[in-house]
Fold:
Amino acid sequence: MFLIGFPLLLVPFAIYNIVAFLMPGVSWTGRLAIVHMKSGADWTMSGGDVLVTLAILLLFVEMAKVVRLGRRGVIDHGLALLLFLGMLAEFVLVTQAASATFFLILVMSFFDVLGGIVLPWRSRQRELVVEHVEPAPAVAEPPPAPVEPSPTSVAPAEHTPS
Structure:
């Protein structure tokens, strides 16, 4: 799979930065679309809502990737950690990153890093438990029938004079 080794949450991070720095007049809370619901209510979607939804979908893919073991998984986890640290620094130091949308993407990045630690560890624990379980016999065999001694094989009783 070609996505291993690439932190997918880099995509919403890059989209956020492109919009925040190259299009300074665009607001993440501005109305993007209105959906008229069957109940009569109007659901208003913003650009931030769409970006957070994309990030959640990519986080799901990241969690599916994190259970892979091996060198590629370690590289992927290391890159996810670097991405989280970079996002954290930007959130604290850059004015354009001080928004709820960026914060939610930052939290998802944190869960990506945390999942990279916890999920493989739990997976290895489960494998250890499975290895120690002995399989039950497929078909129970009937016990062997008792063998009765034949009359010719019985030794005659010895008579001792009294």
User: Anything to note?
Assistant: Helices lie at 10-22, 47-66, 71-93, 100-131.
